[in-house]
Amino acid sequence: MSFAGTAQAAASTTFYTSPSADPNAACTSSAPCSLSAAQARVKKVLSAKPGADVTVLVGDGTYRLTTGLSFGAADSGRPGHPVVWQAAPGAHPVVSGGYRATAWTPVAGSGLVSTKVPAGTRTRQVYINGVDTPVAQTKPADLGWTLNSSDSTGFQVKDADTAAALLAMASGLNAAQVHDIQFEWSPQTGIDWASSECPVDSIAAGASPGTATVKMAQPCWNNLTNKSATVYGGNSSNVTPRNLLANSAPTLLENARAWLHPGQWYLDDSSSTLYYDPVPGQQMSALDVEVPQVESLVSVAGTLAKPVHDLTFTGLRFTTATWNAPSTPTGFADVQAGLMVDQPNTVSGGKVQPATQGECSFAKPAAGSCPWGAFGQPLANVQLTAARNVAFLSDRFEDLGGTALGMKYGSDDDTVRGSVFDQIGAAAIWLGCAGDPTPGSSDDPASAVVQDCSADPVASAHDQLGAGGVNEIMTGNTVDNNVLHHAGYDYLGTVGITMMFTRHTTISHNDISDMPYDGITSGAWQGHVDSVFKGPTRNDQTTSNINAYNTISNNHIHSTMQVYRGDGGPIYTEGHQGPTVLNSDGSVNATASYAGGLSITGNVLDLGHGGYATAPDVGSQWIMMSGNIEFHNRYSFSCNWPTPRTSRVSFTGNWAANRGDGSCGSAPTYHDNTTIPGDPGPADLPAGVLADAGPTAQYQYVETALPATVEYIGFSKNGQALLDGSGFTPGIPVSVKGVPAGGVRYLSGGFLTVPVPSGTQASDIAVGLPAGATRIDDTDPSITYSGYALSSARNLGDLNDDVHYAKANGSTAVFSFSGTGVQVFGEQNTDQGTIGVSVDGGTPTVVDTVPADGRRHSDVPVYTTTGLPVGTHTITVTKLSGSYSTLDGYQGLNSDEPGSTDPANGYGAPAYFSQPRGLGDLTDDM
Length: 926
Hints:
By secondary structure, the chain is mainly β.
């Protein structure tokens, strides 16, 4: 990886590390030491020579931690001369909180394998070959179970067959194994933004014959089903953070060995045994199975009086950590965007009282009746508190079970730049602390703020907050030129980037994609004002959260709302985004108020899955949206700010496929916008805005972290196509109907324009295929089928309007090809499942062909492999699960020999070039 833009200290002292180092080594180039030994030497140098220039060159390999790394004030550099922890030249070091599971043995009488893991291992994730692999799970319907009669303690199972099956399963489990079982609601019934889960406390026979009782863990069940009402954000009536609807059956049952399916794992904590159900053909010795042992992988924590400062991490990969709180009786009672109710129950008169955590000054029955007005939030595996001028440059955050990177509580002027986030359980980045909803105010109990927000509560115990004189408000942080992909993997209601309670924050030039919910949120639920209306009208709230002067600009946000398609979008806000400024006569000074609000500008927002392009929801005010491109969405923006709707959101100078959601009317906030088609081509959009969205030229190398993927193709009448996706590079091959395209214009890592002949369809265009690529239809006689049948005239967009399909697991399709790469084309639909793809008899790769958006996608590449040795290869596709497996053919990516124009030929004189010949040559030249 390139480390363009890396901050380099003028090093006067350099230490060297290696994962296999002697703990007592000297930390020199010839005798490198461990990370902890290098840190001790850095502190020693800084103690003797405060402000010295120090660099640690981190050698290649994997540094496996059993406890996380902690950096404090003593690890700090000085302004302009940070202490730099940097990958050694040519190295790609990995900081892992995981244990590699090996020594697998078959489990007698089953197809399972097992291995021992270190005693005390607790985890909610296991990563196999870098992919977050599902825990043992099933759906109630797949078991034929009826679980929908609930009360204040859990489920009363009245179906005799379900009750018998539950009791039979529980009879073979000890109490700890029962407690490990989780019920999950993803998505949560009746809520288009939440995903919750609770552990089981006990399973017992019911009071009547043929019944059973499933008691759910507390306080999770009460927090999920019995939240207290609040009044917030300008609503005129009590609003309850949505409870789980009565009699809502779980969507998933998780974490019991009996529910193991191929490609799933189960950890028996009581015996420290990890079980895995291999996919047919998998060889365990060929798999990299990583089991997290650490929750806090890296902590950079100072105090408000002595912050950690001037520290840089660059070229490092942070990976393999978990977050176990949702497996405790607290569970994960989602409110919105990962905010959760996690307070213990209160009991009055022998009854469990509603969960009153959150918005306490508005809570019923009486304002202030609960002592703390804050929700919980997911643990950050890499976390900063009271950290100033700390930078993460060209790093990778992958395979992390909580929030990947969190900044909160007095963290100022920190930077995240040129980095990649992938396979993240919760949010990729979280800015702010839910436990400090009014930073800078003396209203919040200092002890509670410290406990909730500081990564080191003991050291921060004497911090002065609010009126005490030291301001804990976060300000001046920057997140730019990063790729954030596939966050919210385990907690579907979480968001790519969450902003809460920050000022002068810049989120710019990022590529954000593959999110189940929003791409970026600012102020979700808890971002509302904390006092009643005080202005001349209901909307003039002169007190608010402390958000001010924040910017979301020039981001490319696409493929969001993949699970939740209603109330949300690429950019979602709630509450004031800046203070309401009043004139001397008490009227609102709109110009000054907008100037201190949230600027959303220059972003390209391709939704494609429902929702709003920008969603200023309840209480949103002082937001300026300008110069954005918004398309492929239901509405450009919502109008859910407080009624009566006044000029609190300015939508000016944008290119939008439509206006608001219909309730906006002719609001004066909408002007000078350009209406574009819902599915625009390149002639409909300003190329400069497209080119400037996502990482800038200096950092576009981060785009190569993702495979080249096309998510949208739009056409203009002038014979041009716009390609919107990820992973594009200058000179990337593009083919149209199997023929290499000329005149491809590279705008950025997310956008290309391609000249196309009349009648071209999206399915005719392929990216990343070199000259010589050949498409083979599913009817080609070179394919050998077993268990597949032909289906023709489907009218669903298949190549040549036909596919081969299989119903029986184990059905195969075998194809031999000559070349160095191949793609498998098929269909993605909700009635499909997984397939196993093996090349030359190797370990099968499991491919899930169920689409995240729940829609049918015909004639799409479901599997790609490149870099094979020159020669003949055989690829085998095997149906593993689902009602159907569908095959629509293959695409040979390149041939044994380079094309005639390939510079690898190295032609010498005399050699001549002939084009066009019209005689059937590859690309019509020789």
